[in-house]
C-alpha cells in the first residue's frame, strides 16, 4: 500500500528549517491543508530554540507555488472569501514578523498566493526558470494574501499595478531588475545559495539579527487597516458573476469572458 506523501516536506539542516511545499502535480497550489501545515511550521519556528532561519521552497522543477488552490474556489461565497483572505494574511504576516530570517527559494512559478508567500518572506532568491505573476484579475479577484500591500512597498506602486492588472508573468531576470529577488541562480545552486546566505547571517550577533528583522518589518508598516480592506475587496470580488466565470474558465481550461457583473 502506497502512503500519501506529506503536503509539506520539512527538515532541519543545522538550524535551518527547510520547508518544501509538496504538491508538485498541482504545482504546489496552496490549499487550506497546506496553509494550515505551513502555519504550524511557522509557529514551531517561533517557539524553537534550534531553528535559526527558514527557507521556503517548492517541490519539483516547475513551481514554487502556482497560487491559492482554485479548485477550492468553486463554491466560495463572498463572506467566506473575505475570511479566507484574512486567514491567509495572518499566516503570511507571521512569516513577515518572524525575527529569524526567512528566504523564499523560488524554483519555478510563483503566481498569485505563491508570489504573495514569497513577498511575505524577508528575502527572495530565484532560479533562472522562475516566473512571477499575479493572475487574480484573470479570475475576477485581486491578490488577497497581502500582495496588494507588500508588492507596492517592494517594487513601487506603478510596477505593482502593472503586474496586478496585466496578470502577466515576468521571468527571473526581470524580477531581479525590478527588485523582487536579490539573486538569480541555477536550479542546482538555488538551495546552496540560500543556505550560504543564511550561514553568513548566522555569523553575526543574534540580537543584531533579531533587531534588524524587527525594524525592517516596522519600516514596511504592514500593521494598518489596509490589509483588512484588501480582505474586504477579496470578498467583494468573490461576490461577482465575473469571479464565478473566472474560476469556471480556469477549470475548463479556457479564457474567461467578463461582463462587469
Ligand atoms: N489551483 C489549483 N490547481 C492548479 C493551480 C492552482 N492555482 N495551478 C495549477 N494547478 C493544477 C492544474 O489544474 C493542473 O492540474 P490537472 O493536471 O489535474 O489538470 C496541474 O496543476 C498542472 O497545471 P497545468 O495548468 O496543466 O500546467 P501548465 O504548465 O500548462 O500551466 C500555469 C502552468 C501555472 C500557467 C497554470 O497552471 C496556471 O495558470 N495556474 C493557475 C495560476 C493562478 O491563476 N493562480 C492564482 C490563483 S488565485
Question: Could you characterize what this model shows?
Answer:
This protein is an alpha/beta fold and 261 residues long. It is 48% helix and 16% strand. The chain has a six-stranded mixed β-sheet, with helices on both faces. Strands 4-6-8-9 form a four-stranded mixed β-sheet. Strand 1 and strand 2 (16-21) form a beta hairpin. The radius of gyration is 18 Å and the shape is globular. The chain starts with 7 loop residues before the first strand and ends in a 10-residue tail after the last helix. The model has no long low-confidence stretch (mean pLDDT 95). Bound molecules: coenzyme A.
In short:
With 261 residues, this protein is an alpha/beta fold. It contains 10 helices and 10 strands. Helix 1 runs parallel beside helix 2.
Topology:
Elements: E1 8-13, E2 16-21, H1 32-47, E3 53-58, E4 63-65, H2 78-97, E5 102-106, E6 109-111, H3 113-120, E7 123-127, E8 131-133, H4 147-155, H5 157-166, E9 170-171, H6 172-177, E10 183-185, H7 187-202, H8 206-220, H9 226-238, H10 241-251
Parallel strand pairs: 2-3, 3-5, 4-6, 5-7, 6-8, 7-10
Antiparallel strand pairs: 1-2, 8-9
Helix pairs in contact: 1-2, 2-9, 3-4, 4-5
Bound molecules: coenzyme A.
Coenzyme A binds next to strand 6.
Amino acid at each position: 500500500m502506497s502512503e500519501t506523501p506529506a503536503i509539506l516536506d520539512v527538515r532541519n539542516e543545522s538550524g535551518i528549517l527547510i520547508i518544501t511545499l509538496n504538491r508538485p502535480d498541482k504545482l504546489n497550489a496552496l490549499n487550506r491543508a497546506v496553509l494550515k501545515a505551513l502555519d504550524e511550521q511557522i509557529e514551531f519556528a517561533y517557539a524553537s530554540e534550534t531553528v535559526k532561519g527558514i527557507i521556503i521552497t517548492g517541490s519539483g522543477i516547475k513551481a514554487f507555488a502556482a497560487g491559492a488552490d482554485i479548485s477550492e474556489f468553486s463554491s466560495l461565497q463572498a463572506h467566506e472569501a473575505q475570511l479566507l483572505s484574512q486567514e491567509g494574511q495572518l499566516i503570511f504576516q507571521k512569516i513577515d514578523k518572524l525575527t529569524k530570517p526567512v528566504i523564499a527559494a523560488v524554483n519555478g512559478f510563483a503566481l498569485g498566493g505563491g508570489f504573495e508567500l514569497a513577498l511575505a518572506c524577508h528575502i527572495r532568491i530565484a532560479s533562472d526558470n522562475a516566473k512571477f505573476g499575479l493572475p487574480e484579475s484573470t479570475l475576477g479577484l485581486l491578490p488577497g494574501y497581502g500582495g496588494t500591500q507588500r508588492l507596492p512597498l517592494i517594487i513601487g506602486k506603478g510596477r505593482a499595478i502593472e503586474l496586478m492588472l496585466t496578470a502577466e508573468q515576468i521571468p527571473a531576470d526581470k524580477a531581479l531588475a525590478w527588485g523582487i529577488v536579490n539573486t538569480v541562480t541555477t536550479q542546482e545552486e538555488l538551495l546552496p545559495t540560500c543556505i550560504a546566505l543564511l550561514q553568513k547571517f548566522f555569523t553575526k550577533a543574534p540580537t543584531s539579527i533579531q533587531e534588524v528583522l524587527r525594524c525592517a518589518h516596522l519600516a514596511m508598516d504592514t500593521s494598518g487597516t489596509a490589509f483588512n480592506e484588501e480582505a474586504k475587496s477579496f470578498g467583494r470580488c468573490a461576490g461577482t458573476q465575473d469571479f464565478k466565470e473566472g474560476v469556471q474558465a480556469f477549470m475548463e481550461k479556457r479564457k474567461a469572458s467578463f461582463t462587469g457583473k
